[in-house]
Write a structure and sequence with these properties.
It contains seven helices and ten strands. The protein is α+β, with helices and mostly antiparallel strands. The strands form three sheets. A six-stranded antiparallel sheet has the order 4-5-6-9-8-7. It has a two-stranded antiparallel sheet with strand order 1-2. Strand 8 and strand 9 form a beta hairpin. The radius of gyration is 23 Å and the shape is elongated. It starts with 7 loop residues before the first helix and ends in an 8-residue tail after the last strand.
Length: 242
């Protein structure tokens, strides 16, 4: 029903949003084509596109190249108020965490890794490359670098079955106490897109974490490429200071 005095695109947007929130249009459902929506609402293509565009911008819909417009899967929200583990956060959200080990071995520390871990350039480090999944969907491609001298034999552990931080505590008596993280928007490379089931050039988020033990010695530098269409981060702020 068209309501006088309310812009048509807002009415179409509100109707579709009500169907999404009410469950008539479930995550992954395909939205009618522009021509079908034009016919159903009796409006122009420009009006339909404006309504759909706002829903895409607000994260309710997503455009799949060559396929059409679909109801977006709700994003996973990750708070940044304290130390967190990917696996435990996925479990907290009621999903099944998974890890696919892409490779593990010794490598010489690059300039970036050496600086983060406080090591001389080309010092041997353990490089652990993993694809992190939630309900079998790839969300994060990450590489963790750890000082090989401090963690002898770490490269021989089976990280498809063991969590890294649990292993550090159980086998080496080391636990991460604090971390420093830097976030940066990027466009996926061909390799990253292939791992994450996306397209080259799709937007993503890079998170670089340096983790420290209780004495503030760096124990891990991790670079994660995160799907920005499925994960978002938030920070709760306290009262503003005068």
């Amino acid at each position: 029903m068209i309501v006088e005095g309310v812009p048509l695109y807002r009415q179409i947007k509100a109707d579709l949003l009500e169907q999404i929130k009410g469950g008539q249009l479930a995550p992954g459902a395909r939205i009618e084509s522009e021509l079908e929506l034009m016919s159903r609402y009796g409006v122009s293509r420009a009006t339909v596109r404006q309504a759909l565009g706002q829903l895409v911008a607000e994260g309710y819909l997503e455009i799949r190249r060559g396929l059409g417009t679909y109801v977006a899967t709700p994003k996973l929200e990750q708070g940044l108020g304290g130390f967190y583990s990917f696996s435990r956060e996925i479990e907290r959200l009621g999903m099944r965490p998974g890890t696919r080990v892409l490779g593990v071995g010794l490598e010489p520390a690059t300039r970036t890794v050496a600086a983060a871990l406080g090591l001389p350039l080309e010092t041997p480090v353990v490089a652990l490359r993993r694809l992190r999944l939630a309900d079998d969907e790839p969300l994060v491609a990450e590489t963790s670098y750890l000082p090989a001298a401090r963690f002898p034999g770490l490269a021989e552990r089976d990280f498809s079955r063991r969590r890294l931080y649990d292993t550090l505590l159980a086998d080496y008596g080391v636990r991460p106490a604090r971390a420093h993280e830097v976030f940066e928007p990027v466009l996926l490379t061909t390799e990253e897109a292939s791992l994450l089931g996306k397209h080259r050039g799709d937007p993503a988020l890079v998170v670089e974490r340096t983790a420290f033990d209780p004495t503030m010695q760096p124990i891990e530098f991790c670079r994660s490429v995160v799907r920005s269409d499925r994960v978002r981060y938030f920070v709760d702020l306290g009262e503003a200071q005068a």
